[in-house]
Design goal:
The complex is a heterodimer. By secondary structure, chain A is α/β, with parallel strands linked by helices. Chain A is about 30% helix and about 20% strand. In chain A, the strands form two sheets. Chain A has an eight-stranded mixed β-sheet with strand order 6-7-8-3-9-10-12-11, with helices on both faces. In chain A, strands 2-1-4-5 form a four-stranded antiparallel β-sheet, covered by helices on one side. The longest helix of chain A is centred in the middle third of the chain and has 18 residues. Chain B is an alpha/beta fold. In chain B, the strands form two sheets. In chain B, strands 6-7-8-3-9-10-12-11 form an eight-stranded mixed β-sheet, sandwiched between helices. Chain B has a four-stranded antiparallel β-sheet with strand order 2-1-4-5. In chain B, helix 3 runs parallel beside helix 5. The chains are: A alpha/beta, B alpha/beta. Chains A and B meet through helix 10, helix 11, helix 12, helix 13 and helix 14 of A and helix 5, helix 6, helix 7, helix 8 and helix 9 of B. Strand 13 of chain A pairs antiparallel with strand 13 of chain B, so a sheet runs across the interface.
């Protein structure tokens, strides 16, 4: 039977005896960079913080110093299919995030942006989805996603996530301080007191009022904005290299949204964290992103630096999205719309998935257009780009 | 004037049980407004400011603690029975969440026909069916959708069903509580256009509760900004957005991330969060977050005063707040991009699009 996420063998898990069979795993790690738990596991003779012994050759320490110019995370040719479906929900996408960069993944609901994030973090339930292709390289180490999930040690450590609804993602029966301390203990080890000090530090850094008192609060005693600050504190407690934020401000009011966006921006600038932010709000993208990837139906249809994409949108879907947003600066006439709604995955057309809603759809669109560079890192997947050079109004 | 509220208040009692102290939440605290026939009036504010309570008071889903609601010249503050039923016929409601506001066990035809069963009991089954088909077409659905169930529809279509249901009794006023905020942008635009068309074609008065300022700017004629149960600024939408005089209105406008703005990260922000309505600050409720706050603001509640640009603002120091709101650096668009956007607009409006002959294209590609 094909297992998308094979159970990890004893060697993968590490544990007593692993060392004898995988002697080459003994690499010396610069101490400061390893979290406490990893250090402990290394001390027990477990192969690596990343679990997999046989991968050690791929990402050596020298490799990492070399790769400082390479992206922090790059996802290549990623496909994901939910069990029982024929079509891939995520269909061959490539994403890249550099250190200190904010990549916004934007699209309407059902375009696969959250699923991508969940798959990256290894949060999809085992057996729910298969991954026919996809490689992930993170911090110079490569992972073949078809065979394995990301090691659990990365999750919440080097890779952290902020969710949309902080009320449902915090545990209602534990105090805030304990919840933050738990992640610190899990990844850095140390004593409970140290972890609590760290939790307090983090609450201060995210600007929560009276942090000492808040340590002992329960989630329901906080407002939505404060809960989101707690989520951010928790995510950043282990100094992640990559932060994935899934609609972090969608549930918040505008004034609070502005505060939270500024906080995320400041903290990630400070620490040089690479960030993938998932959002449907183009205003948020304009405000915070360095780069943007527009997704539709599980495909990336346009990507590039945010200024280029927003000044010079190429793909009909990007244009449609931008034109259908009402403007704060002035009342326009009728809003331009995109016809219909995103089709269900079973009804997704072959080729360009946007063609059922596209005003320019032609027979050529039955073949999937490749992402084509249109200058300075800006690429679009449309046969007719640039539209004005290939098409005109009849008559 | 079709709908008027005078000094409307709604206080909710909370607690008083075994474990909690008694409290009083002043959800709406002295709101006066008038809505003219045929206009679109918007009420904006952050969550907890009392805008939804106000909407429910206006359509008498809740009974006010104090003040009066007048609909078309008749006092409906304490209307009951037949009078209230008549009010329901004239004032209808569109709910925010199209997923929970439709009974999943009723077919679309029953859902849309239900208000007719109540308000036009004499109508024959066939006449009702015909009317339902007509309503469905009016909101951009097909008559055969009447036999389907809500789960078969997408969010945007469900919101259309909700709108058809609200239109069924032939109301004069429709109150929409965040009618488009649960929808995706492209679908939101469709529903915004639909509401605008219906408002114009049927001569409806729309009262729109929303937190999205861009939607309000696009749709409304007049707007009232609420903060902690009170209206802090009110006026014509264009005036209010261009020359806001209340610090809270300015803060709201500054906080909205704008797609057209290339340099957004450096805007002024207001600190803190809205205080709890169960324990509002003394004086001007906004003084805890206001960058202009002084001693007077902490002690005296500012009255709603008329300003020269034709709106009313409740701030002691509105005369000093004259700086224009943020002006974003606009997008930098080339002629080619403008042509492309124009082409897109024409295409969506139904123009026929033909390929440019290959020899004319400079790239030489033949798609």
């Amino acid at each position: 039977m094909f297992r998308p996420f094979p159970k990890r063998s004893r060697a993968h898990r590490g544990g007593p005896g692993t060392q004898a069979r995988f002697p080459k795993c003994r690499v010396s790690w610069p101490d400061a960079q390893i979290s406490g738990v990893c250090r402990a596991r290394y001390a027990w003779g477990i192969d690596s913080p990343f679990g997999r012994a046989d991968q050690f050759e791929i990402g050596s320490r020298e490799g990492e110093t070399l790769s400082n110019t390479a992206p922090l995370l790059s996802l290549k040719d990623f496909r994901l299919r939910f069990r029982g479906q024929d079509a891939c929900t995520i269909d061959r996408i490539d994403l890249e995030v550099a250190r200190g960069e904010v990549l916004c993944v934007v699209g309407e609901s059902g375009c696969g942006k959250s699923v991508t994030a969940m798959a990256l973090m290894g949060l999809l339930p085992e057996g729910a989805a298969e991954i026919p292709s996809g490689t992930l390289s993170f911090e110079g180490l490569d992972y073949d996603l078809t065979r394995e999930r990301l090691p659990a040690d990365l999750r919440g450590g080097a890779m952290a996530m902020i969710f949309q609804e902080p009320m449902t993602s915090l545990n209602p029966v534990f105090r805030i301080g304990d919840q933050i301390a738990e992640t610190v203990l899990r990844h850095r080890g140390g004593t409970r007191a140290e972890a609590e000090t760290r939790a307090l530090d983090m609450l201060r850094r995210v600007g929560l009022p009276s942090p000492e008192a808040r340590l002992r609060s329960y989630p329901h005693q906080l407002s939505g904005g404060q809960r989101q600050r707690v989520m951010i504190a928790m995510a950043l407690a282990n100094d992640p290299k990559l932060l994935i934020a899934d609609e972090p401000t969608t549930a918040l009011d505008v004034t609070i949204q502005a505060q939270i966006l500024e906080l995320i921006r400041d903290l990630q600038h400070e620490a040089g964290t690479g960030t993938i932010m998932i959002t449907h709000d183009l205003g948020v993208v304009a405000e915070i992103a360095d780069a943007v990837a527009v997704m539709y139906g599980g495909q990336v249809v346009e990507t590039g630096p945010v200024a280029q994409v927003f000044d010079d949108p190429q793909h009909p879907y990007t244009i449609g999205l931008m034109e259908s947003v009402p403007r704060l600066s002035g009342a326009g006439g009728r809003l331009t719309t995109i016809d219909g709604a995103v089709p269900a995955i079973e009804a997704m057309p072959e080729g360009c998935r946007f063609r059922t809603r596209c005003a320019f759809a032609a027979p050529a669109c039955a073949a999937r257009p490749a992402l084509r560079d249109v200058g300075s890192g800006h690429a679009t997947a449309c046969h007719f780009a640039p539209l004005e050079a290939h098409l005109r109004v009849a008559g | 004037m079709i709908l008027e509220a005078r000094d409307l208040t709604k206080h909710f009692r909370t607690g008083g049980g075994l474990f909690t102290a008694k409290g009083l939440i002043k959800a709406v605290d002295g709101v006066s407004l008038t809505v003219e026939a045929g206009e679109t009036f918007a009420i904006v504010g952050e969550s907890g400011c009392g805008k939804s309570t106000l909407a429910r008071l206006l359509m008498r889903l809740l009974e006010p603690t104090g003040g009066a609601v007048t609909f078309d010249g008749t006092d409906v503050t304490h209307a009951k029975g037949r009078d209230l039923a008549a009010l329901r016929r004239d004032v209808q409601f569109i709910f925010q969440d199209p997923f929970s506001s439709l009974n999943p066990r009723l077919s679309v035809g029953r859902l849309v026909g239900e208000p007719l069963e109540v308000h036009a009991p004499g109508m024959s089954r066939d006449a009702r069916r015909a009317r339902v088909a007509e309503l469905l077409e009016q909101v951009g659905l097909r008559p055969e959708h009447a036999d389907r169930y809500p789960h078969e529809f997408s969010g945007g279509q469900r919101q259309r069903i909700g709108i058809a249901r609200a239109l069924a009794t032939g109301p004069r006023v429709i109150i929409g509580d965040e009618p488009v905020s649960a929808l995706d942008v492209s679908v939101q635009a469709q529903v915004v256009n639909l509401l605008a068309d219906l408002g114009r074609d049927l001569g409806l008065t729309l009262i729109l509760i929303a937190h999205d300022l861009a939607v309000i700017r696009h749709m409304s004629d007049r707007v009232a900004v609420m903060y902690l149960g009170r209206i802090v600024e009110q006026g014509r939408t264009a005036d209010l957005f261009e020359t806001p005089r209340h610090p809270y209105t300015r803060a709201l406008l500054d906080a909205v991330p704008d797609l057209e703005d290339r340099g957004g990260a450096s805007r002024a922000r207001i600190e803190g969060e809205m205080p709890s309505p169960s324990d509002p600050p003394s004086g001007c409720a906004f003084h805890t977050r206001c960058p202009f706050a002084r001693d007077l603001c902490r002690s005296a509640v500012p009255p709603l005063e008329d300003t020269p640009n034709g709106h009313a603002t409740a701030c002691h120091f509105w005369r000093e707040i004259t700086a224009p709101p943020r002006a974003g650096r606009g997008r930098d668009r080339s002629a080619a991009t403008t042509a492309r956007l124009e082409l897109y607009r024409k295409a969506t409006e139904g123009a026929q699009i033909i390929p440019v002959p290959t020899s004319e294209t400079n790239t030489g590609e033949n798609p």
